[in-house]
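Q: Given only this backbone (276 positions), what sequence would you predict?
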């Protein structure tokens, strides 16, 4: 059996169902050996909790990398999410170049913005650094807001296919080899995902639920990477990740207390089923 080993680099938000606390269980459910490199430790995520703690772990990255190099540790893929500080970008590029096996893939979710705004703590300098990381990626997985920040295209809530084509074209011009653009909605009650892989264009449209949850970008990207590394085609991988994310949002809908994340755990069994 093909058993792949992946490294994911993103923060530990101790509470809040995002980043590593989401990526690790999802990637494990996808049957992948998942090594982690925490980019930062926060008491909670930054979207709605007040007074969160933040410890940047960038300074640990060079010595972790040199240890891995001395042990000849290699990965089939590296998948990055929320990083948290500008000086991590060069370290992350160095880690990917020294630990990816030949033919290994770099997946970058430029987790930094949503609904037209950057997350707290990020600024234009961070966006520039993220552009540099995206340039080197095999797959980037931005939402529409992140795509706008990366390309300088004006953010719009209502748009047509020409606008989405402009975004994907500009993202590819940055240097990313393939693009997965999430949250692409052309009609009321529907949303979807665009993929451009090796010049081929795909769109998977699905229901847009009335509620939205924090952390669904991380659920989506983790499930996409997991499905893709299971050998699914790009279209099947964007579809499986979307169906699974919708399942998690759906079961969270009626719970007003659960405002900080999506209940992705009870539907992990659906993801495993979709992968069969
Ligand atoms: O889900 C993205 C994310 C990840 N990590 C932290 C965040 C957020 C979104 O706000 O605050 C710390």
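A: Predicted residues:
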């Amino acid at each position: 059996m093909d058993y792949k080993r992946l490294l994911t680099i993103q923060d530990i938000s101790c509470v809040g169902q995002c980043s590593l606390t989401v990526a690790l269980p999802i990637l494990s459910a996808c049957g992948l050996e998942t090594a982690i490199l925490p980019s930062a430790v926060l008491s909670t995520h930054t979207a709605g909790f007040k007074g969160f703690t933040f410890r940047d772990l960038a300074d640990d990255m060079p010595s972790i990398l040199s240890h891995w190099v001395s042990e000849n540790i290699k990965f089939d893929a590296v998948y990055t999410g929320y990083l948290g500080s500008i000086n991590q970008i060069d370290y992350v590029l160095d880690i990917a170049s020294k630990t990816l096996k030949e033919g290994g893939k770099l997946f970058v979710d430029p987790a930094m913005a949503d609904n037209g705004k950057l997350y707290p703590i990020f600024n234009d300098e961070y966006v520039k650094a993220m552009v540099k990381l995206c340039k080197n990626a095999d797959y980037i997985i931005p939402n529409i807001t992140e795509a706008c920040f990366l390309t300088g295209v004006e953010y719009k809530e209502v748009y047509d296919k020409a606008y989405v084509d402009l975004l994907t074209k500009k993202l590819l011009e940055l240097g990313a080899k393939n693009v997965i653009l999430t949250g692409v909605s052309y009609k009321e009650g529907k949303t979807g995902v665009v993929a451009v892989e090796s010049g081929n264009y795909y769109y998977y449209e699905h229901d847009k639920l009335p509620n939205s949850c924090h952390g669904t970008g991380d659920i989506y990207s983790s499930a996409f990477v997991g499905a893709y590394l299971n050998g699914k085609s790009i279209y099947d991988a964007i579809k499986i990740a979307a169906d699974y994310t919708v399942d998690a949002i759906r079961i969270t809908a009626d719970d007003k207390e659960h405002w900080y994340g999506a209940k992705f755990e009870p539907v992990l069994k659906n993801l495993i089923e979709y992968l069969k």
